Structure prediction request, 366 residues.
Amino acid sequence: MLLARFGRRIASETRIDSLLTIIAEEVRNILDADRCSVFLVDTEKNELWTKVALGVGEKVLRIPMGQGIAGFVSKTGSAVNIRDAYRDTRFMQDFDKITGYQTKTVLAVPLKDREGKALGIFEVLNKSKGAFNEEDEGFLRILATIAASSIENARLYENLRKSHLETIYRMAMVAEYRDQQDTASHLRRISKYTGLIGAELALALDLIEDLRYASPLHDIGKVAIPDSILLKPGKLTPDEYEEMKKHPIYGARMLEGAESRLLHLARNIALAHHEHWDGTGYPYGIQGEKIPLEARIVSVVDVFDALTTRRVYKGAWSVGDTFNYMLEQSGRLFDPSIIASFANCRPQIEELLQDETKALGGGLTS
Ligand code: C2E
Ligand code: SIN
Ligand code: SIN
Ligand code: FE
Prediction:
């Protein structure tokens, strides 16, 4: 049944944009209308704007709150069903002038949140045969209810995800605070290099996004390493290095048992980012593809960033020297396919480093 399919399609969609497009497509098909628009309330500008407008081209239409049919429906919270738009005083002909369209029939219902506050409106234009009837109106109302609660859920979800990501980013800041010259830009680089490799490997976009937020947590275990070792200006003694080599285990313990995919990836990365492709790494000396992909990626990214920046114990290498070293270590320290991807990203990496010297500061996403 159409409605069941509609419900299934929107239930699986958490991003507001694609969600609304799906809703509009289904509504247009089900009601056999020529156009379908979803207007959302913009509280800052006090306007309604077309988040989705199927059959209108690329244009975003904006209506001052309270004006036109859309404004009327949003303001009063009641539906309208119009047989001849040009004979309705509420109708704004401006849009037809802009889009070169001839509006005849209009069916519009409000989108309301749980508390009855206006989220926007749902509008269909020009039914293929005759006028919209009561059955169409009932249908559009049901769809509008489903759509409104889905919009609300998508917004709640996006807010939740935003605060989740922000918390994770702050955790990474805590972890790197003591031993990095400029924590924010270090984290941003790690995140960006990881994203570049992920894209080059053609990983799914949502996985790339999770990796971009998980990668800065790789050294979280360093919070358990004493200052006397972590901040030592010179070379570590063998005992000190042994202590330092526990940071992957500490990090994995901190992230153990996390339920989100993002933190699960972060745990694997924390544990295995010092493993080497040839099995000579630590803490376990695992080899090749037994090392999780996410850790093999971050291993490359981490060493590249460690070499190209200054540390308390070493100066910065040039990008050229660093790439030479990384290529030389392909198949030894590093997974050859990841080094190949990384090398393909060299132009973007150089550009990124140049931009960084120009403009300092900013968050993960800039
Ligand atoms: P880190 O500074 O973030 O370095 C990460 C990794 O980058 C190192 O892992 C190593 O694989 C690579 N790397 C960094 N500097 C160099 C270098 O000069 N030459 C080469 N070939 N590779 C380099 P590693 O060695 O397991 O070290 C893990 C962490 O232990 C380092 O993280 C750093 O926090 C600490 N560490 C290592 N060596 C020293 C040291 O001599 N003095 C101090 N104070 N800390 C050290
Ligand atoms: C109006 O709300 O008056 C016009 C709506 C439209 O043409 O999309
Ligand atoms: C991505 O680039 O895939 C995610 C966007 C972001 O993390 O800002
Ligand atoms: Fe590390």
